[in-house]
Hints:
A hairpin with a 5-residue loop joins strand 2 and strand 3 (69-74). A three-stranded antiparallel β-sheet has the order 1-3-2. It is built from four helices and three strands. Helix 1 crosses helix 3 (43-55). Helices cover 61% and strands 16% of the residues. It is globular, with a radius of gyration of 12 Å. It has one domain: Arc Repressor Mutant, subunit A (Orthogonal Bundle). It is α+β, with helices and mostly antiparallel strands. It has helices at 4-23, 32-39, 43-55, 76-89; strands at 29-31, 59-63, 69-74. This is DUF2513 domain-containing protein. It comes from Streptomyces spongiae.
Amino acid sequence: MATLHQRKNHREAILKILYAGIEGNRAPDVSGAELRDDLAIPEQDLAAACTYLVGEGLVTVRWAHGDTPATVMLTHQGIRLMEAEEEDRG
């Protein structure tokens, strides 16, 4: 299982990938397998990160069999959080 620092990094990286997709006019959802491969994290850590982000209201997840999310998508609240962070960075 990932450390606290790793779990925070996983959640942040998921949000960044999803937000970058929106900025790039891609489909609003990303497959869990794509996230897992892009982030090179174990399936259970991806599932834990997605579960946490769902609980915070930042993403929605359509779950596949097992622990892999079929798709993950930012919610309106998730988009607003990422926009606020982008504004803070200048």
